[in-house]
Amino acid sequence: THHPDPSATPIDQAPTRLVRMDTHVHSSASSKPVIAAAGIVGAPESYSDPEDVYTQAKARGMDLVTITDHDTIAGAMTLVHKNYPDFVVGQEVSVSFPEDKCLLHVLVWNLTPELDEQITTLNLRDDVYNFAAWLTQHQLPHSLAHPLYVQNAKLTPWHIERCALLFKNFETINGAHDNTLNTQIARYVASLTPKKIQRLIDTHDITPHWPRIWEKGQTGGSDDHALLNIGRTWTQIPFTHHETPTATEFVKRIGQGRAQAGGAGGHASLLAHQITTVGAQHFARTGHHKRSPAGRYASAKLLRFFGAQAPAPTKARLIASYAWKKAVPFEIKRRKRTSPTLPLLLKDFKHTLERHPSLKANLDPDTWNDGPPVSQHDEMAHFVADLITTMSATLNETIPTALAGKHYKDLAKQLQTYAMLQLAQLPYIVSLYCQNKERAFVQDFAQHTDTQCAQESTRPTRVLKFTDTLCDVNGVCRFIQNTANTARRNNRDLTVFTSSRIPLPPTVVDAPNVRNFTPIFAMKMPKYETLDLALPPLLEMLRAADELRPDVIHISTPGPVGMVGMLAAKLMRVPVVGVYHTDFPAYVDELFDDHVSTTVCKQFMSLFYKQFRAVFSRSDDYANRLKDLGLDENKLVKLKPGFDNHQFSRELRDDSIWDQHNVPRDAIKILFCGRVSTEKNLPLLVDLWPDIKQRIEASGKQAHLIIIGDGPYRKAMEKRLQGLGAHFLGFRHGPELATLYASCDCFAFPSTTDTLGQVVMEAQASGVPVVATNEGGPKEVIDHNHTGYVLPIDDPTAWTDAIVQIATDDALRQRMSKSAVEHMKQFSFDESFAHYWNIHEHARVARFTKDTPTTTTTTTADSEHAENEQAAQQLNKRRAPMPS
How large is the C-alpha radius of gyration of the chain? Predict the structure, then answer.
């Protein structure tokens, strides 16, 4: 709520009451389609009966009522003809700048049929300057509606500055539009002074008609189209005990610029419910009667949520319909398509509604005390998300069964139902788009007019990170976990979103900046049974992202969660930054051995990453591969390698840990840690191990192969290495993992597809020499011949010799161990994170700020006051003559 300056009202004239009117309301006379798509099916902007508008406004405490339909007073005049008291005729007039047809909407009150006709006959809608002069001529109270809402992609700060000279009042709280717009226009209006107005006059060569044009009245209105929010936003005028608060006097004071705005601004759920309610009202009139008895029964229940009345069939009619379906032969039935969604909806709807008692209690129109259930916006949004999640959970159980049993007809129906569930979320997605589409313009306007909120402009960068993998055990997950932990430790505003049915790991389970959304569907990934393919709850995740209002969105993975992150970035108009963690084309090629699949994957990755503001590569090798995908070289940033080098240490070596794994303490342990999959090139290690083991044991030492991790190749690998001293430990975490690292003697990492290979750094920090390939990122964090060896992947003899040499030469192994520990000290994760965060801050600055002026003018409060007084006197003398 915007409160007036207390000094504006003399103490002896202290108001005894505030008179309120919702000054922006629509009725069924606003008959144009609210969006172009609605025009295709003939749905108008509003179905609200004018009398219902009046009733709801009064029920919500409005002293006076108006209707401001688009370019018509037809709805308002129905109440005038019926002699409704406390009523003001209004209109939302569409008017354009003649220079470029930039469209504005101006609320005008106290209209008569004759004045309404003049707007058309004088072609005032085509020329905002003539229209503003006409308002002055007739002394009509008015307000520029939702001033920062870009209606036809032409609005600029230039237009708003001219409006500041043309109109006396601005709508600073619009109940249907996001508060970002409301707050910024209120800040701008409050910043106007005689001195600033004089500068605008000099710049635009426009002389204001209204006196003291810098003193703007501020109005508020719900902009309601669906009988949901009337009276929740309003314009108020203070009246003293000596004055009679009539409608005539109220709008007169609006015209004098004495209005104050109050109430609530809009948000995405509110706008979604307005859109949906208009659609529901349209369906109730045009489509409900065409449904089957069961369909009419279900739709009648659903329509009650939106205040739409539709007749439901009796139970007897339902029973008769069901019996007819069972009794009549298929050949003579009408072959009508029935939606597979309906049975699932009927099954889950009742149980879901029980979890939302406030909505259930408000389903009966006779008990409505504050509008239909959908007007409870937060609760309704939670109900929709809950219902979709519940229905999706049922599909989660049936789709895998149908797929396994090859019941393809059932599978097709279930997939159709799933598609319908996603379609049901479309109004919320559209509203998120609408509520955020002015974000960049508002920021630019604040910069241009020097009215940016100091607190907002100096607020630390807020980053929202989307990742499909956080609960698995791999280097990417540990990198993301370390990022979240480091951000929290350094007071950086970073939040991580993921969606997995696997519980969060112990190290992040209580982290306040990590959120795991329960997936609506999850299954084992084909050819990769240790990983899940999870579909996140789209609506829930998008709403949570919108509430956070990030400055930058970071996408770690190009999976379903990453796709939601990309959609969130598009909807919220924020730049995208990401890390190329995994070489998916190489993995697809290795796992499926199919050229077509690999090509499709490359094309997808190219399209996906081309939309990023910056793409981190964790090595030079993969920066070149990103160039091969067609990415702009200027977008590529090599992220300084780093890991949690405090967690891993040579000092953690404890040979007693091998007792529980039946590995001799004094044996040489060759370690591999990572996904046990063919794309890690583990078949090479399997082929070489018998010869390596034999040569090590020929030197008088025992040799054992330690495999930490899991994956689709594990069973085959276990079978081939059976009886050869291979030990598969599965996933290991935290201190135990660090101890296992330090208690081994050599780390063999034959992968050619790793973008960095965090395990290679962890092994070296633990004092373990590394043997790795010369392909991929790991080679860049190894000091060849000092901390290990970087070898050609096509030279198996060199691999065998290198591993045997490290295992059998104690002096060499000790020297490399010390060198590895020293080498890893330069790869601090704190330094890597500082570089990582700096890129995100640059992405924010590049998107939302402009160069600041190099010179500033400093004035004292007294001199500023004197200049404003002088400018005010000059402006009052320069008022434009009243048009005849």
Answer: 34
Q: In 422-546, at which residue ranges do the beta strands (DSSP E only) sit?
A: 462-466, 493-498, 514-516, 521-525, 528-535
Residues 6+ apart with CB under 8 A from 817: 650, 767, 768, 769
Question: Mean pLDDT per 10-residue run, the chain (884 residues)?
Answer: 42 70 96 64 86 95 97 97 97 97 97 97 97 96 96 94 97 94 95 95 94 95 95 95 90 95 93 91 87 80 85 75 62 52 76 90 73 90 88 75 73 77 85 88 90 73 92 78 91 94 76 90 66 82 92 91 94 90 62 68 81 83 72 84 87 95 95 90 95 95 95 92 95 91 96 85 96 90 95 94 96 96 92 92 70 38 60 59 46
Are the C-beta atoms of residues 169 and 217 closer than 8 Å to each other?
A: yes
Q: Which two tokens stand for residue 425?
A: 């979320």
Sign of torsion over alpha carbons 736, 737, 742, 743: positive
Say if CB 824 and CB 806 are below 8 A apart: no
- Of residues 273, 257, 220, 275, the one with CA closest to residue 62: 220
Residue 96 burial (CB count, 10 A): 18
Question: By the 8 A CB rule, do 488 and 475 touch?
Answer: no
Q: Given the structure tokens 């109270």, which residue do they identify?
A: 141
How many helices (H) and strands (E) the chain has is answered by 33, 24
**3-class DSSP state for residue 220?**
strand
Q: How far is CA 347 from CA 303, 390, 856, in A?
A: 18, 10, 67
Mapped onto helix, strand or coil, the DSSP state of residue 236 is: strand
Alpha helices in 459-583 (DSSP H): 475-489, 538-548, 560-572
Q: Distance (Å, rounded) from C-alpha 688 to C-alpha 686?
A: 6
Question: How far is residue 774's CA from residue 780's CA, in Å, rounded to a whole number?
Answer: 9
Q: What's the pLDDT score for residue 65? A: 98
Alpha helices (H) along 678-809 = 682-698, 714-720, 734-742, 758-765, 796-808
> Is residue 317 classed exposed, middle or buried when 0-12, 13-18 and 19+ CB atoms within 10 A define those classes?
middle
Q: How many CB atoms lie within 10 A of CB 35?
A: 13
The span from the CA of 159 to the CA of 286, in Å, is 41
Helix runs in 155-313, H state only: 157-166, 179-191, 194-204, 247-255, 268-286, 293-304
CA–chain centroid gap for 546, Å, is 5
> How many of the other CB atoms lie within 10 Å of CB of 340?
17
Task: Answer yes or no: are the C-beta atoms of 711 and 677 closer than 8 Å.
Answer: yes
Separation CA 283–CA 280 (nearest Å): 5
Are 25 and 221 in contact, with CB atoms under 8 Å apart?
Answer: yes
**Identity (one letter) of the amino acid at 588?**
V
Strand 552-555, strand 514-516: pairing: unpaired
- Residue entry with tokens 């959970």: 393
Compute the distance between CA of residue 237 and CA of residue 571 in angstroms, rounded to an integer: 37
The residues, any chain, with a CB within 8 Å of residue 236's CB and separated by 6 or more, are 18, 19, 20, 21, 220, 259, 260, 261, 262
Angle at Cα 658 formed by Cα 657 and Cα 661, nearest 5°? 115
Q: How far is the first Cα of the chain from the last one, in angstroms, to the nearest whole number?
A: 39
- pLDDT recorded at residue 624: 72
DSSP state string for 344-355:
HHHHHHHHHHHT
- Burial of residue 223 (CB within 10 Å: 0-12, 13-18, 19+) is buried
DSSP state of 709: B
Classify the C-alpha dihedral 143-146-150-152 as positive or negative: negative
Q: Where are the beta strands (DSSP E) in 359-449?
A: none
Instruction: State how far the Cα of 3 lies from the Cα of 260, in Å rounded to an integer.
Output: 7
CA max distance for the chain = 112
- Spell out a b/e string for 384-416, using b for 16 or more CB atoms within 10 Å of the CB, else e: bbbbbbbbbeebbebbeebeeeeeeebbebbee
